[in-house]
Every structure is written in C-alpha cells, then in structure tokens.
Amino acid sequence: MSIFFSRQCEYALQSIIYLAQKKQGEMTTIKEISSHLNIPFHFLGKIFQKLSHKGLLHSMKGVSGGFWLAKPAEEIVLMDIIIAIDGTDIMSLCVLGYAECNSASPCPMHNEWKTTKENFFASLSKKNILDVAKEIKKDGYRAA
Amino acid sequence: MSIFFSRQCEYALQSIIYLAQKKQGEMTTIKEISSHLNIPFHFLGKIFQKLSHKGLLHSMKGVSGGFWLAKPAEEIVLMDIIIAIDGTDIMSLCVLGYAECNSASPCPMHNEWKTTKENFFASLSKKNILDVAKEIKKDGYRAA
DNA sequence: CGATAATCGGACAAACTCATCTGAAATCAG
DNA sequence: CTGATTTCAGATGAGTTTGTCCGATTATCG
C-alpha cells in the first residue's frame, strides 16, 4: 500500500534516519534495524547493498560488523536516498500518464503538478537527516 | 513506470477525458478508445466495467453499443475518477511509510506532505473534465 | 431468423515488486 | 585454528498489478 515512493525507498528512508540517530561512525547491524523498524531482514540486506554501492553507506563484514553512514548525517538529505533507490523518473513523468506530455505540449495538469512536485522535492532536498533524526527523537516518535 | 496513480487509474483518466471530447450522450466503443489512446483493449474493458459499476459510465451491449458518460462532463471532476479506481488511501498514507504516522504523532515530513497533497487534490477536485477536454482540444494536444 | 459486433464476467498468464533462501567470504573471540 | 556472526551476491519464491483469453449475453441489421 505504498504511495509515491516504492517500499524499498520507504525502508531505505526509515533505516537511514535510524542510523542518523546513532553517534557519528557508530556501526549498526541489519538485524537491529530490521527488528526495530519491522522491516524484513533479508530485504533490508538487499537495500543496504544498493545504498552501499551508491556510496551512501559503508559496511564491514564479520562478527562485530555492520553499516554506518558514509558521510556526516547533516550532509545527507532525504532526496539523496530517494534518488539512490527510486531514481529520478518520479520528477519528470506525467501525472496523468500521457507519454507525450512535456513542457512544450503540456497536459491539463502539467503545470499544477510541476509546481506541486517541485516544491515538495525542494523541501526533501533541504531536509538533512540529522535534523530529521532530532525531530523524531524530540517528539518521541517511534517508527513502524 | 507510473507514479502516484496506478496504471488503471491513468487509463481511466485518459479515457474519460476522451469521452468528454464527444458530444453529450454520444456512444463510443472500447475499440475506438483503446486504439486512439494506445491502451490494451481487454484491460480497458475491465476498467470500464469498474467505472460502470461505480456509476460514472453507462453502457449498452450489441452491434452499435458502447459507453457514455453517466453525467454531463462539466459535473465530473478528475478526483471522481481517481477515487473510483485508486480509492482514498492515497490521501491519508504516510509519505515516508511509517505505519504510526498521523496528525497526533506526525513524521518529519507529515505537515509538508499534508499541504502538498491537499493543494493538489483540491485542484483535481476543481477540474471538471469538460474544461480538461477543451484544453486538450485547444492545444491540439494528442494523448499517447 | 441468422450473422455480426459489442459488452460482461470469470479464469488465466505475464511482468514487476517484494521477500526469502542459501552458500560464500570476511571478521572476531576463544 | 575453530566456531560464531555478519555482510555479500546470486537464485528462487510469493504477491500484486497488469494484461489476455474465451464463452456468454445482448442488440442491430440484412
């Protein structure tokens, strides 16, 4: 029942926000994250593989291994994660599904959708995950 | 590669806009619509069944049968079609995928997403398909 | 009436996303 | 070194959405 972002992307966002709540450089296992956030263990493994390949996470194998953020939390914005997982199509596709819709021959919702999405993506590009993590802690908000 | 609305919903929107370009009460076949809009014939049949059950279309079997709008085009808004096909979940689900997100315990994107979607849905609820059809004709815009 | 052409509705197939399984490689503790 | 634990990577399975098929029903027209 996910909307707008894929399930994978939702899980990635939630997990990276979770990592941002940790001390910088602290290592965390998939096991811990999947149980805390209620995300399927093996599926999260796949997602973290992708995020590692994209350069957002670092990892270490072995008994005391795990994952940690490749950059300080304040330098990672939500949009980075979305682009890493879902790509950039979401920013350009026609909301009514017309294949030929573009700025030169816009569909009837083109301009309103353009404004809507640009504003929203702009705020996703401003939100760094350190602030997000603090906000969640402050409210005592607990992820699914 | 559809976003926001399901494929079915996109097809429904495009098809009903197509019907709105016809004279009021004029009957049109699935065959014509599917070939003009490049929508799979049998799939569109299913979608139109659903739209008929929901009361947005009327239909007639037989040699000169087909479908027509159940109401004048100016009385049907885009949101009616979206709700008929995709339902109302899209209006309430958390954009980051947190199960426990709501106005009482909002996620970090909750309020921005709320504003974004409410504005967009409001404009979808204002747009009647007669205006949309005219706009498409005026621009010479041709659906996929 | 009989042929044709359209929707109706249920079953089925294909494609895509979500999720799991398994074995290998790396790291660490004893 | 050996056993335990973790990520890595490819294969496989499950579920959902998308798309197809077919027989039945209904209306039109010659």
User: What are the secondary-structure elements of chain A, in order, as H or E?
Assistant: HHHEEHHH
Distance between the terminal alpha carbons of chain A, to the nearest Å? 14 Å
- The CATH architecture designation of chain A is Orthogonal Bundle
User: How much strand content do the residues of chain A show?
Assistant: 5-15%
Mean pLDDT of chain A: 94
Amount of helix of chain A: 40-55%
Principal-axis shape of chain A equals elongated
- Largest interface by Cβ-Cβ < 8 Å: A-B, 45 and 44 residues
Strand order of the largest sheet of chain A: 1-2
CATH topology of chain A: Arc Repressor Mutant, subunit A
Structural class of chain A: mainly alpha
Main pleated sheet of chain A: 2 strands, antiparallel
Question: For this structure, what is the CATH homologous superfamily of chain A?
Answer: Winged helix-like DNA-binding domain superfamily/Winged helix DNA-binding domain
| Total domain units of chain A | 1
How many strands of chain A?
2
Uncertain segments of chain A are none
Radius of gyration of chain A: 17 Å
Could you characterize the architecture of this molecule?
- The structure is a homodimer of 144-residue chains.
- The first copy, chain A, is mainly alpha-helical.
- Chain A has helices at residues 7-20, 30-37, 41-53, 78-86, 110-126, 129-139, and strands spanning 57-60, 66-69.
- In chain A, strands 1-2 form a two-stranded antiparallel sheet.
- In chain A, helix 1 (7-20) crosses helix 3 and helix 1 packs across helix 6.
- The longest helix of chain A has 17 residues, at 110-126.
- The first copy, chain A, is elongated, with a radius of gyration of 17 Å.
- Chain A binds a DNA duplex (30 and 30 nucleotides) through residues 6-8, 29-31, 40-43, 45-46, 48-49, 52, 59-67.
